[in-house]
Amino acid sequence: MGGPGDPPEGTPEGGPGGAEDEYRSVVFDESFVRAARLQEFSAEERMADHAPAVRRRPPLHRGLTRQVLILAVLIAIAFGTAIYMGVRHPYSSPQARRPVEPLRMTVIPLAPQGKVPGAADAERLYAHSPAAPFPVGAKGIPLPVSRSTAHFSESQVVAALTTVKNYIVRSSLHPEVITGHEARAARAMVDSEQLAQFDQSFDHPAADGRHAPTGWVVRIDPARARLADEEIRVSGSLRAVEADSATLEVTADHTFVYALRPTGSASDAPASLFTVRRELTFRFDRDDLRTNQLQLVTSYVQAGPLACAEDASSYLRPLLAGQTAGSGGPAGTNPYDSDGATPLCGTLSAQAQPRA
């Protein structure tokens, strides 16, 4: 039996009932209609000439879009606040850098006990001296086997040792530095907080244990001597240890032997050997490791043959072949041996000189 609104014979095939079932899934509800972008004009509006039947409605500003925008802003503010608090938190802030100590230096002249030996051939002098087995130049400054420490990686230890080696090469082996013409190559490697002391040492030298150029570099008076052979003999060692959780310390102990002739002399003038032993202590914090710079904190230098009466703070003024000096310190000092500290002026051991 059919419904109240159905014909007695039921809904005819293809009639509106079937169409209603067919399109029931696409019935436009009220919210869909309100959101439609097209809207039919009223009858009065359509009476105007050439008026279109429909008009485009402005898009609706949905509340959801505004909520998403507000939520994004709140998340950004919270994220920025977290970063700020993490940076400013007292327990996560980086440790302040400790002040860099000034360099403390000692330069000890070693006076010969007799005439300074000499020979026209510098190679002959080397061959008959304790420097005969020494390597030439930077080969005499090998890097030791490196291991990490408790707070520094192996690469950081290697970086510290390499920086020290480069400084020793620049301050002890570069001819322009040795002959006193300039020291920029060495200066470029000094920590920025020590540059004022470095510059004052060269601008206003003083034998005060703080401002001697010869504490920073090997500096031979160019008015006194020149290099007879640029193949300088070198022997020594490097050692790195962790001073504390923020500091690496490198100790360098090297002996340098230079062949010299008097300034302005002929190429066949007698040459003599000049020996300089440098015991240097360097420190590195993480800033220094990052910038490949160093802090030179102690410099202990023995050099001879020198006259005790000569001021060795500004320049090293060697005694050359055939020259003599007055009496030196109370006992002979051999710069080739690892002896303790010597007086302000020592005596150069005969064993440190070339044999005839």
Kindly describe this structure.
The protein has 356 residues and is α/β, with parallel strands linked by helices. 27% of the residues lie in helices and 22% in strands. The chain has eleven helices and nine strands. Strands 4-5-6-7-3-9-8 form a seven-stranded mixed sheet. A two-stranded antiparallel ribbon has the order 1-2. A hairpin with a 2-residue loop joins β4 and β5. The longest helix has 26 residues, at 63-88. It is elongated and about 125 Å long. The chain starts with 15 loop residues before the first helix and ends in an 8-residue tail after the last strand. The model is unreliable at 88-94 (pLDDT under 50).
Q: In terms of per-residue confidence, which ranges show pLDDT below 50 for 5 or more consecutive residues?
A: 88-94
Percentage of residues in strands = 15-25%
**Number of distinct helices:** 11
Elements, N to C (H/E): HHEHEHEHHHHHHEEEHEEE
- Which structural class fits the helix and strand makeup? alpha/beta
Helix content: 25-40%
Widest sheet: strand ordering: 4-5-6-7-3-9-8
How many beta-strand segments? 9
Anisotropy-based shape? elongated
Mean pLDDT figure: 83
Q: Report the sheet with the most strands, covering strand number, pairing sense and barrel closure.
A: 7 strands, mixed
| Computed Rg | 43 Å
- What's the N-to-C terminus distance? 142 Å
